[in-house]
Amino acid sequence: MKEKTTKSDQIPYTKRRPIPNKHKIIAVILILAIVITTAGYQLSEIEALSAEYDNLLQSKAAGYLHEANAYRDLGRFDRALEKLRLYFDLYPETLEGYTARASVYTGNGEYDLAIKDYEKAIEMSDPDPELYLQRGCLYIVQNDTQSALSDLKKVTELSPENADALLLTAQLYTETKEYDLALSSYDSLLSMLPDNAVLYAQKAYLYSMQEDYDNALDSLLQAYQIDSTNLEYAQAIAKIYGLKQDYTNVIQYTGVVLAKEPQNTELLLLRANSYFLTEQYEESIPDYTAYLKQDPTNVECLYQRGVSFLKTEDFEAAKKDLEQVLTLSDNTELNENTQAILSYLNEAELDEINLDSQP
């Protein structure tokens, strides 16, 4: 039995037509094109998903950061730190994260941790005066004056007109008794804030600490010129005039304060003594009397009122005050002077009696 043959088997091998090379090349090109197109589509999909994921992470992180700041502002520092932990799980190293956490640590009184976060933030950022200022303030709280001054110096280098840094620097130099450096900082501030009376008053204090009363007075007068309603300035001016023995101006400026504060014992005594030293005895008596109502055993005040009574020829009142001085005083010199005046008054009284008794 003959085997059945197909039509193709009947074609001799040598007569089969192979696929031309150019057709193979075209096929390969088509396959590659399909693969490349498919791969491109998958890659764009992946990139889109990756971008969407990144956006989701960023949105989630921003939400944690926002919540942390909100809890911080409410004083819920524990909850703020929880949200920041979640934020740091997503983004362990960011400037925003470190500054946010530093502010929470600061509010919670964890100053060492806050300083460490500000250090990391400073390392990561371009020179930022605000970061140095915040860290400097923390050093101040920790009484690390030199570190604070170093940070504040950096702030003024980066931002010469940063008023907060200049003011803090002046205050720190005042504490360290480096008065000239403090004055320099106040001068820088006044170049920016020429109508700030408080700054002039601070300068006056520094000059007073150096016993430079001329400059202290000039600064106080400038402060008072800006704010003439401030009785503390008027009182300080009166005191400095007292140190300079300018009693006319003492009387003027104590009068300004006593018009509003009639029971100010310090200024009552200062004005009374100024009247006394300028031989305005009659004017001194009401001030001495007002002062003695609040301090009735002040022997110097009693003595000077007694002498004022004597000078105005109220001898009975003079004797009464001077006898009280002898009762209260243990000052030998004062007692000797008092006894001499009383002896004079007693002799004068006897002479008057003898004259009255003559026929």
Question: SSE layout and pairings?
Answer:
Layout: H1 21-73, H2 77-90, H3 95-107, H4 111-124, H5 129-141, H6 145-158, H7 163-175, H8 179-192, H9 197-209, H10 213-226, H11 231-243, H12 247-260, H13 265-277, H14 281-294, H15 299-311, H16 315-328, H17 332-357
- Percent strand equals under 5%
Overall mean pLDDT stands at 87
CATH class of the domain at 195-261: Mainly Alpha
Taken from the alpha-carbon principal axes, the silhouette is elongated
Question: What name does CATH use for the topology of the domain at 195-261?
Answer: Serine Threonine Protein Phosphatase 5, Tetratricopeptide repeat
CATH architecture of the domain at 195-261: Alpha Horseshoe
Task: Name the features.
359 residues; mainly alpha; Serine Threonine Protein Phosphatase 5, Tetratricopeptide repeat; 17 helices; disordered N terminus; disordered C terminus
Outline:
This protein is mostly helical and 359 residues long. Helices cover 79% and strands 0% of the residues. Among the domains are: 195-261, Alpha Horseshoe (Serine Threonine Protein Phosphatase 5, Tetratricopeptide repeat); 285-351, Alpha Horseshoe (Serine Threonine Protein Phosphatase 5, Tetratricopeptide repeat), CATH 1.25.40.10.
Describe what this molecule looks like in 3D.
There is one protein chain. The chain has 359 residues and is mainly alpha-helical. Among the domains are: 195-261, Tetratricopeptide repeat domain (Serine Threonine Protein Phosphatase 5, Tetratricopeptide repeat, Alpha Horseshoe), CATH 1.25.40.10; 285-351, Serine Threonine Protein Phosphatase 5, Tetratricopeptide repeat. The protein is built from 17 helices and no strands. α14 packs antiparallel against α15.
